[in-house]
Amino acid sequence: MSDSTVKYTMQERDMPRYWYNVQADLPVPLAPALHPGTGKPLTPPDLAPLFPMALIMQEVSTERYIEIPDEVRDVYKLWRPTTLFRARRLEKALGTPAKIFYKYEGVSPAGSHKPNTAVAQAYYNKKEGIKRMSTETGAGQWGSALAFAGACFGLEVKVYMVRVSYDQKPYRRIMMEAWGAKCVPSPSPDTSVGRQMLAEDPKCPGSLGLAISEAVEDAMSREDTHYSLGSVLNHVLLHQTVIGLEAKKMMEEIGEYPDIIVGCVGGGSNSAGMFLPFLKDKLDGSKPNLRVVNVEPYSCPTLTKGPFAYDYGDSAKLAPIVKMYTLGHRYMPPPIHAGGLRYHGMSPIISHLLKLGYVEARAVHQLETFEAGILFARTEGILSAPETMHAIRAAIDEALVCKKTGEAKTILFNHSGHGHVDMNAYDAYLSGKLQNYEYPSEKVKEALADLPRVS
Asked: What pLDDT does 454 receive?
């Protein structure tokens, strides 16, 4: 191919037919998830009120490759395969010898990577006879993705959206409603968990942990409803590996392999979706020097400040207890615009890999990320989501290190979504009104005091 090539594409017929399951290759197995009531290891029947059995089996599977159903691949074809870009204009602006590649997931109907798992989850629920799904959403990417997926398979969808993002991002709510979903701010008066929080604090900005509690309570109160989660869980990361599988095949075709893979992390699904198929090579020893950098907000630094411990997945202690890096299930993060990165915990898989030393973690400030996002927009043309800007920031920083050392490393990051409904965040930055938030150590200390006692 020409040395000036910017876009690398593949045909629909070459799309992955299997998801990659890293649990088959982990040198040490994951710690078991525990029942929130008994503290004992979860069994498939324990999860049956929340998830279809197919997803429960994927959650605990150690099979290396799991087939993508044809019905799911048919919907994927609306936007997949996604394009791999070489960020040549950004490289030139930075004056770096590094090669920067990114996989652009913003072309999905919902504008992010989230439909990769939303479509799969909706399919498996429909197949099991479920009529309705409840979920939470932070910035709205997940809620809009599940709303779209629900429309594809004729499912009713109820979304509890973290209030601060509900107020900041009204167009995400409108997207959900256009696809037929109902979206309410969390905490809401629709659940006992929400009513209790509103009684304690009528102006509560909400959190993903609280919104999860509402969605779980909703699902458990109706026989026709299942709960759906957009990140964190093993089966969600599994579905997202379609990103990395495509990227790996495309890079092989052009004779490239990343030295560094970067992704933003809230719950971890988009980052893991990119790096897990490549990490397989590090785990088997064929690419021992591969670096994986997970980037999170400094104001919600789960991986970089939190302990590796068992914790509840939600504020009301309804969700399973999992071993992960956590800031405490009662932590209420500051209202940064990257609402999708404000979860108190982290994917057990990413947490496990960090603990074992196979991946890295980094925290960055809000203003730093927007600075990177603006440079990216003015060179590559894409207005990125505030979440994605965290990955862009780290990719730029790694490229600048190469500028100092003279090393021509290859950097790959997952561009997880566009920011077309985040214009108020851009306006805040461009007008000088955007601010950084410090790490609230005392609030975290209080939230961690309520960790479950697990022997």
From this structure: 85
Q: How far apart are CA 58 and CA 15, in angstroms?
A: 21
H helix or E strand, kind and range, residue 294: strand 291-297
Do 411 and 310 lie in one domain? The reply is yes
Write the CATH number for 312. 3.40.50.1100
DSSP 5-67: --EE---GGGS-SEEE-GGGT-SSPPPPPB-TTT-SBP-HHHHTTTS-HHHHHHHH---SEEE
Which amino acid, 300? C
299-350: pLDDT as tens digits: 999 999 999 999 999 888 888 999 999 999 999 888 888 888 889 999 999 9
CA distance 313 to 213: 9
Q: Read off the pLDDT of each residue in 86-101 and give the average, rounded to a whole number.
A: 98
- Does residue 210 lie within any of the structural domains? yes
Phi/psi at 297 (nearest 5 deg)? Answer: -75, 145
> Residue 26 CB: number of other CB atoms within 10 A?
16
Residue 2's pLDDT is: 55
- Domain holding 131, by residue range, is 23-50+114-227
Contact 230, 137 (CB under 8 A): yes
Tokens 């959190």 map to which residue? Answer: 207
Q: Check whether residue 158 and residue 292 sit in a common domain.
A: no
Specify if 2 maps to a domain: no
Q: Provide the number of structural domains found in the chain.
A: 2
56 domain-assigned: no
Q: Quick one: pLDDT band at residue 294, thresholds 50, 70, 90?
A: very high
pLDDT at 340: 83
- In three-state form (DSSP H/G/I as H, E/B as E, the rest C), the secondary structure along 172-208 is HHHHHHHCCCEEEEECCCCCHHHHHHHHHCCCCCCCH
Q: Which residue, 227, 257, 289, sits at the end of a domain?
A: 227
Of 227, 257, 278, the position where a domain reaches its end is: 227
pLDDT in tens, 113-167: 999 999 999 999 999 999 999 999 988 999 999 999 999 999 999 999 999 989 9
3 state SS of 364? strand
- Give the max Cα distance, the chain: 63
pLDDT of residue 371: 98
* Distance (Å, whole) CA 375 – CA 392: 9
Residues 85 and 219 occupy one common structural domain = no
For the cut 90, the answer to whether the pLDDT of residue 209 exceeds it is no
Pairing of strands 99-104, 410-415: parallel
